[in-house]
Amino acid sequence: MTARRGGGPTMHDVGRLAQVSAMTVSRVLKNDPGVSEATRERVFAAVDRLGYRRNETARSLRLGGSGMIGLVVTNLANPFYSRLALGVQEVLTEHGFRMMLSNTGEQTEREPGLVDGLIDHRVEGLIVVPAGSRQQHLADAMRHVPVVLAARPPAGLDTDCVLVEDFHGAREATACLLAEGHTRIAFLGNPPALYTGAERLRGFWAAHEESGVEPDNTLIRQGLVDAATAERAALELLDLPEGPTALFCTNNRISQGAIRALYKAGTTLPLAGFDDFDLSDILGLPLTLVSYDADEIGRQAARLLIDRLGHRDAEPPASRRVTVPTRVIRYGPHGHPGGRAFGSTPPPTA
Amino acid sequence: MTARRGGGPTMHDVGRLAQVSAMTVSRVLKNDPGVSEATRERVFAAVDRLGYRRNETARSLRLGGSGMIGLVVTNLANPFYSRLALGVQEVLTEHGFRMMLSNTGEQTEREPGLVDGLIDHRVEGLIVVPAGSRQQHLADAMRHVPVVLAARPPAGLDTDCVLVEDFHGAREATACLLAEGHTRIAFLGNPPALYTGAERLRGFWAAHEESGVEPDNTLIRQGLVDAATAERAALELLDLPEGPTALFCTNNRISQGAIRALYKAGTTLPLAGFDDFDLSDILGLPLTLVSYDADEIGRQAARLLIDRLGHRDAEPPASRRVTVPTRVIRYGPHGHPGGRAFGSTPPPTA
DNA sequence: CTGTTAGCGCGTTCAG
DNA sequence: CTGAACGCGCTAACAG
Q1: Strand C contacted by B7 CB (< 7 A)
Q2: DSSP assignment, residue A4?
Q3: Is the pLDDT score of A349 beyond 70?
Q4: Distance between terminal CA atoms of chain A?
């Protein structure tokens, strides 16, 4: 730890040691062809000797671009977000950008602050999975840099976004249950103010209509925010005199809460839901999961953003909406309502 | 998107609009007391009107400190690392630092490059979970900034680190199996070149010695890197004429691979291992898991680093080693060797 | 092939 | 209470 506060050798220091000006050092480090081999070597030697590292902060100030883009997510511990982040990272790296990550920790109200922070650090663009329904702060952000939304559509904003086939996936999974004869399917959903919540309910509902089955409103529980709330809601439903014969869950955490509820209640019901998760294939439960590639959402979002950064000076292209496909996967035993006991586990169906 | 390349209003622009110098703007934004209320208001009005945001890049250049620390991990998609990252984030935020995250994506050879990148961006410190056994690049990094290691001890380096009770946890969990009468316990481990791998094997071995049981070398498989390799190794072991009656796994991915192997082999064996994971409690398998708080590793590492940053000018304190405790948790049915069929599932024991 | 000048946006220092 | 000068480390543009 040689570094004094703000310390470390500068190009000047390197130049002095190599007997050249700072400018020449800059050229060497940039691989500028117009430098004699002799000086190149002297410069590199000096760089090595001093342990010199070019100061990217000063560099981006001078160049007027940080090479950095910001990603805002709510909860890195949720594999959906960490996967998405990895997808973003991957594409950014290919294009020579770096990622600056901000995590709201499920505190929706922190999002505007984090966005501002990223702008203060002069990210050149922003990818956001908006946590709440208010997006005014994103409109503000768009005054500074392009913004791409991931997994949620813009609300009162004109910008690119990457969406999952929420409606389609929910409809298809629900249809599987209906096809097996279920007519009392409970719906366990996140807050309907969230796009995904609303859209997945719509798919759930549409599947019912197409089967001529009337959804039972008493079996619909929305506003669930985590596994714990989902578990409680599911236990209540299972306790009903006229309970459900199957469950539909709008995301991985809700599915896991519901599964725990089934376990505690000592019963087994077919469960459909969004998001595949670890070990889902060996739980021995009849699962119908809507799977999709969270990495791909991140990759696509990054591509949209980078493309838009390319057109910075030109007329901005019309805003685009990309969709990532879903796929229904079925695990465990499947049959007609009133299935078997927890734990009978033939190998996976799909 | 008003921003030209490198664009956006500056303090000068704000100052002109507010009829003051840039200096005064700077003072207002810094909450410097020596500014009249009237000008304050004019400045804030101008800031609002222009959507001005202070340029943190220029700021850190001038101040000689970026307020940023770097975190290097191998795989964000592994909950261990994402949790650790959240813990780091939490403490940094409390102290007014920001985090810059780099992910090697399991490519050990990329780690030095990522570390350099962070130094180029003038992080003031580094928290690293070293992926390989070579740490020379970290010694280089220490010439520039303080480095704290997480989950692995320094090798040929003199610096702070935060460790898990690897030995103790492995010994305790293994002892549980031995106490139940198991004498043929398989060991499924990550590469022994990794500290955790070696240490956990040591604990496994110690427990055997203490019970007077001779470990069977043919049941020890090391060098497993993910769930897939673990699954294959476990299947091989299960296929042995004199197979194991229980399994010990050194991390969550290996446990999951082994569990999948048990499932495919249609058998049930007690399994002990490091890391708790989602739904472990309802698998209905006899599990003995060594649990610990990954967030806490991150928090402690961040505290060590921040403390060290406080002593920047003084004599650096001797390097410290902090340990995060483990706790053994047992799930599912437990009894004597030759247990029950997959799927008999009374409620959790602990 | 190499050096000089100038300035990116900001804050410290010192004068008013 | 406010402003001017200077420099953080780097590089584009222009000399030589």
Answers
A1: yes
A2: P
A3: no
A4: 56
Residue whose token pair is 């997994």: A151
The helix (run of H) or strand (run of E) holding residue A101 is strand A98-103
Q: To the nearest whole percent, how much of chain B has pLDDT over 90? A: 77
Which tokens is A342 given?
A: 């927890």
A contacts of B65 (beta carbons < 8 Å): 5-6
- Contact positions of strand C to protein Cβ (< 7 A): 1-5, 7-13
8 Å CB contact between B53 and B83: no
Q: Write the pLDDT tens digit of every residue in A277-297.
A: 999 998 889 999 999 999 999
Chain A: residue nearest B284 by CA?
Answer: A343
Nearest nucleotide (CA of B27 to C1') = C11
- Rounded CA-CA distance B332/A119 in Å is 50
Cβ neighbours of A31 (radius 10 Å): 8
Q: What is the CA radius of gyration of chain A?
A: 26
Between chain A and chain B, how many beta carbons pairs sit less than 8 Å apart? 168
A126, A157 Cβ separation under 8 angstroms: no
Dihedral (C-alpha) B85, B87, B92, B95: value to the nearest 10 degrees? 170
Nucleotides on chain D within 7 angstroms of protein Cβ: 1-5, 7-13
Contact call for residues B229 and B257 (beta carbons, < 8 A): yes
Domains and CATH numbers, chain B: 11-54 (1.10.260.40), 66-164+294-319 (3.40.50.2300), 166-291 (3.40.50.2300)
Mean of the per-residue pLDDT values of chain B: 89
Which residue has 């309970």 as its token pair?
Answer: A243
Tell me which of B4, B278, B287 to substitute to probe the interface with A (most A C-beta atoms closer than 10 Å): B278
Task: Pick out the nucleotide with least CA–C1' distance to B18.
Answer: D2
Helices (H), B193-251: 195-211, 227-238
Q: Cβ separation of A85 and B76 shorter than 8 Å?
A: yes
Q: Which residues of chain A neighbour B56 with C-beta distances below 8 Å?
A: 120-122
CA neighbours closer than 13 Å in the CB half-sphere of residue B171: 13
Is the CB of residue A86 less than 8 Å from the CB of residue A293? no
